Structures are given as structure tokens and as C-alpha cells.
Amino acid sequence: MYVSTRNSGGELDLDLLDSIHINRSALERRAATLPKRRAVKQDWQVAWMLQALRCIDLTTLAGDDTRGRVVRLAQKAIRPVRGDLLSALDLDVDTIHCASVCVYHNMVPAVAAALEGSPVGTCAVSTGFPAGHIPHEFKLEQIEASVAAGASEIDIVVSRETVLRGDWQALYDEVRDFRTSCGDAHLKTILATGELASLKQVAQASHVCMLAGADFIKTSTGKESVNATLPVGLAMVRAIRDYHQRTGQKVGFKPAGGISTAKEAVVWLALMKEELGDEWMQPDLFRIGASSLLADIERQLEFHLSGHYSAANRHPMA
User: Fold this and answer.
1) Is 155 a catalytic residue?
2) Of the listed 218, 250, 284, 296, which one is catalytic?
3) Count of the separate structural domains present in the chain
4) What is the rounded CA–CA span in Å between residue 130 and residue 192?
5) pLDDT tens-digit profile of 233-282?
């Protein structure tokens, strides 16, 4: 599995948070240029799609998930593209795989067992996902139980109330506790940006979570009415860039929710390249939370080879 340098965090800096200002119109204009300026074609397009595939946290968070379904998903994450397509592209099947499989806690043992010995990580959503409305001690117990069951990565949700009230000390203390409970597992903090009031709050919450020790900051649970958007992503990656410049520590970024096509995934990769550089295009610092995205990438790869779009049933998700 991918292992990145841990973010040790730092002391909460309220003066830094007060100094944050966001020019929303400028940010939105910048975000609007990305899909227009990064048009990759032919073999370059294939390379970018395969890189996006390697950054996928293949996710199922449905009420009707079964052990059989998540095991098939794990197998798909290990071998995400049909062998004949990879052979035609002259690629080694062992080099192409997703970053992790993301599930609810009760599915962690099945996923961890199915992924054992593979380079794919086991990720669990936690802390009362998606709303986060459970007691703090229960949140810590959830994290610890998932790590004990085999999760190498934990996606937690923050208490949105603390962000909306601007209670940065409470948010910092909460995430710091989550980091401690994670132990050796990597911590991804979900801001649920669609439920926050402004891009300034998004940027402030991003800084607080990084100072508290988050290894990744993530846009959304995928359950909000508005999930990952480019302006929000731009605000968050610029917070990551500022944090790195001030501390020398690297924090990853994960957009999630609504990213379902290869074209969209390439735009998010372009955002990382232009704002943070090539290092942040790698799975140890960039993830995409998705389910249907993988099927579209596989379909686009077949189109590249054959010139025809195949039926969806030729690219089963699991």
C-alpha cells in the first residue's frame, strides 16, 4: 500500500486563521479555466487516466452492502482493468491497481482479508459518518475498532457545528484526538464542504485539521447535496500549499462525491499539478473518492484501443 510521510501537525495558530481571506470571484475564475486549459489527447490521455485510476479510493457506502459485494470490490481494486486491455497497452497487470477500498466499519475485516498481501489499502469511514452526530467517546471507539480490524486508513467526519461557530479550538482538539486514536493508520479529515457557509471557512477548517495532524484533507462525504467542486478544491489545495511552505510538512488532498468520469478526474489531476506540483499527483498525496469512475476509465481505455465505446456490462464494477 502507499505510505506517505506522516503530518505531525503543530500548535493551533488563531492569528493565522484570522488572517485568511478568500477572493471568491477570483478563485471561481481560476477554477473555471482548468477544464479548458488542460486538454490531453491520445497516449497522454491514457497516461493521465491510468494515473487517476491509481489514485482512486474505490468506495461503497450503501445500506445494502454485503460481504460478497465488498470482497468483489476488493478484487476489482487489485485488478481494476481487464488484462487484455493492459496487454494491448503494453502494461504490466501488477503495476495498475487502485489506492484503497473504502467501506463502513463492519465491512473492514472482509476487505482487509481480501486485500491481504496486495498493495491496496483498507480504508474505513468513521466517527459517525456521514453526519458525525454521536458522542465524542463513541467516535474514538469507532476509529480504534476499525484500526484493530485491519484498516490502514481512516476517513473521519468533523463536527460541522464547530466550523460554523468558528470554534477552532474545539475542532483542533477533536481532530487531535482522532489522530491519536488512529495510531499508525493514516487520518483523512472530511470537511463536508457543501455544509459549510463560505470558502473562508473551508480554508480555515483545512488549516485547523492540518495543524491537528491530519494526513489528508477531504472535501465531502459524498452524501451532501453539494460535494466536490473545483473552487472548494482550489481553496483547500492552496491551504495545503501554504501549510507546506510554513512548516515543510506535506498533507494530501482527496476530492470525493460526484466525480464519475475520466474527464473530470483528469481535471482534478491538473489542479494538483498546477497548484502543488507533480509530487501531489501521486497516490500518497492525492486520492479520489469514487465508485463509478473506475468503470468509465476502463471504458475510455477500450475506446482508445478500438475506436468504439463498449457496453457498460463489459466493464463490471464488481
Assistant:
1) yes
2) 218
3) 1
4) 9
5) 999 999 999 999 999 999 999 999 999 999 999 999 999 999 999 999 99
User: Hey, what amino acid is at 209?
Assistant: C
Are β-strands 100-103 and 216-218 bridged in parallel, bridged antiparallel, or unpaired?
unpaired
Q: Which of 177, 188, 254, 296 is catalytic?
A: 254
- The string of pLDDT tens digits covering residues 33-78 is 988 766 666 778 899 999 999 999 999 999 999 999 999 999 999 9
Per-residue pLDDT averaged across 122-148, rounded?
97
Among candidate residues 57, 76, 139, 155, the one labeled active-site is 155
3-state secondary structure of 27: helix
Residue 8 lies in a domain: no
Is 254 assigned a catalytic role?
A: yes
Q: Residue 286 domain-assigned?
A: yes
The whole domain housing 230 covers: 14-314
User: Is 209 domain-assigned?
Assistant: yes
Asked whether residue 39 is domain-assigned, the answer is yes
| φ, ψ dihedrals at 218, nearest 5° | -125, 145
Is 57 assigned a catalytic role?
A: no
CATH of the domain at 220: 3.20.20.70
